[in-house]
Amino acid sequence: MNKTYDTEILSVGTELLLGHVTNTDARDVSEMLSRIGVNVKYHTVVGDNPQRLRQCVEVAKSRADIIITTGGLGPTCDDLTKQILAEAFGLPLVEVKAEMDTLYEYIKGGKELTPNNFTQALLPQGATVFHNRWGTAPGCAFEKDGKIVLMFPGPPKECDPMMEAYGIPYLKKLSDEQIVSHSVRIFGMGESAVDDLFREEMNAMTNPTMAPYAKECDCLLQVTAKARSEEEAEAMLRPVMEHVKERLGEVVYGVDVECIEEAVLPLLKERGMTFAAAESCTGGDVARRFTDMPGASAVFLGGAVTYTNGAKARILGIDPALIEEKGAVSYEVAKAMAERVRLLTGADIGVGVTGLAGPDGDGVHEVGTVFISMAVEGRTYVRETHMGAWRTRSFVRRMAGNHVYDMMRRWLTGLKVE
Amino acid sequence: MNKTYDTEILSVGTELLLGHVTNTDARDVSEMLSRIGVNVKYHTVVGDNPQRLRQCVEVAKSRADIIITTGGLGPTCDDLTKQILAEAFGLPLVEVKAEMDTLYEYIKGGKELTPNNFTQALLPQGATVFHNRWGTAPGCAFEKDGKIVLMFPGPPKECDPMMEAYGIPYLKKLSDEQIVSHSVRIFGMGESAVDDLFREEMNAMTNPTMAPYAKECDCLLQVTAKARSEEEAEAMLRPVMEHVKERLGEVVYGVDVECIEEAVLPLLKERGMTFAAAESCTGGDVARRFTDMPGASAVFLGGAVTYTNGAKARILGIDPALIEEKGAVSYEVAKAMAERVRLLTGADIGVGVTGLAGPDGDGVHEVGTVFISMAVEGRTYVRETHMGAWRTRSFVRRMAGNHVYDMMRRWLTGLKVE
């Protein structure tokens, strides 16, 4: 942006302060703003209390150019955001006919509304109204005293789409510069190694810029450019992206994806291949993650959760003598799991996971020891990992799943697997 | 508490403002504080910027009695929290020998530390040191100028256990009143119905108090008492808890548990029974949720994720003609899934889920239609649910899992299942 707009996100709701609800609104709004280059400088959460909300609005006015509120727009007497913000900027609340009409439509449609519901149609005078197609309380935006104020309802299923549909276009208009950003997603190299690799270059860059970020079990490098138009920004990014991907090499699993399974789904679709999973320590999480994505059924046939030795024998038909001899957490059992689930389901690729997620060990291996396997085209690959005994159960399970998807990705793109 | 301590949680980290990370620390710390009756009045998030952090500390000093910081305690030059807080309260940073020794132990253990790592052993003079057994950066607490400051590292896996182990006992000592709180967890009755049921009583109560809260797919009623001692508070809660549980009846699945599967695990253990799951639309999530709990292997044998019709036939041996005739989303196929997975694994209880999680429909049923089944002791129960086509994929999957566990809970406690 030509001018830098410091932004504060002010979330209103006592449930946030009690820890009953996580402030995902602030995260989601921040993420959308960072993509268009708006600098979020503060998040504040305050309860449904007029005095404290008023004080927080004063603090925000003193340090931010853009104030984005989430929550407190509903019809109950707890919902104060509109009143307090309007008052703080000296604007009266006026009835918006289109919103009133919407409420009457609800009544005709058979919904019961209380008199309080109609306060939702009151908005600060002169505000741009953001009609809520995902709920009932409308949002709005106004500019006053050199500040820009946007208000959104609290439920994430209303806040997020409204920010995307109204907030982002509204804020983009303030600028004659466009910001475009891409994330290079990395598995198999840590954030600090990525940082080391590009440290000198990053220090020398001004536009585009690059920055590495750690996620729970992988990391990313975000590359951002500013220009007069999106096309120009994209053109500036292209050589940087090429360079970064080449320098990082095989550890890049995708660009602008959220997780490694999101990179595997299209690879399987392209090749018309299916897979099935046999899971022990991940307990269904490999299947769950993949089926979180709509359209998974085109390539994921199903699988077995063989949490006990008996289940490994009964569902997958693994020889109990093999489990007895080698142990459930072993190269051999992992190999058999991938091979058997492939045969059982008729999938092109069978994957298997067996290991110790903790907190209890098995007296043989350290917690964090996991064998990950993949059977495809007559060959079975097995990866042995030792994540460290200090790792949490959820880390081991998630990381094991990442290895499953990484092995598939590598095989599907012709890279070395083990 | 005899004195009310207004509390502000100040989370430090640019990654929070970019939306790369959700501020779960603030939620978790708030939740723990609400259990001991400490009133959190504000959450603030600020980036790794000394000037803005300093300003946020000044704001917090002006409006809160207790300031709890999360994040910014690590060894990199971004990590400023300790320095800025110490400075704001006029305290020098001094080297803490025990923490220095710990760092030397790491080096002996083979870990590589940079000179910066040693700044972690510098803490505000006179502070109570919170040794970090879950990571490297220690936390601390001090009292100065009538304010109480506690600092914790940012990673939730360090912040949460440190708050529990050090923060809560530290804050409890400030008070000669004890607050005790219990959560009655409810599935099968919505938050507003619970609110209606107890509205009059709640309005008339002062100590103990009650309040209902909605979770994604269930709700809870929190009952809280204040007294001189924990025993006294518990004694005050006992008749209220009895009354509430009796009035709510069968929809209560547990007290002080986090989710319904947590209530099912001990019920199965008590009766020495095992179960197995056959999942279609939940895609492994029923198994994943159960195996998130350590100790699940004592009662959960495993199961099948039969995401496609072929997998239902090949893994579970369901007659393809039945699927053809009745459809994969049907009473009959749900029934067969529970029965077949029970037989296949030899479990005492077999459960099955088949339905439409969306966003795509099957041309027959509305999205949100899910059949949930349970085969046990010669009988198979099937529940047909219609959650509504507007529901998200993740809601339908989670709610379907809740129904699975609710059917098990009801059967195991002798209640009506369907």
Top CATH class of the largest domain in chain A = Alpha Beta
Low-confidence stretches of chain A: none
Q: Which structural class should the secondary elements of chain A be placed in?
A: alpha/beta
Sketch the major β-sheet of chain A.
Answer: 6 strands, mixed
Mean pLDDT of chain A: 92
User: What is the CATH architecture annotation of the largest domain in chain A?
Assistant: 3-Layer(aba) Sandwich
Helix content of chain A: 40-55%
Figure out the total of helices of chain A.
14
CATH topology name of the largest domain in chain A, in short, is Molybdenum Cofactor Biosythetic Enzyme, Chain A
Q: Which two chains have the most extensive interface, and how many residues on each?
A: A-B, 77 and 76 residues
CATH superfamily of the largest domain in chain A: MoaB/Mog-like domain
Task: State the assembly state of the protein chains.
Answer: homodimer
Shape of chain A: globular
How many structural units, i.e. domains of chain A?
A: 3
* Rg of chain A, alpha carbons: 26 Å
Distance between the termini of chain A: 46 Å
Strand fraction band of chain A? 15-25%
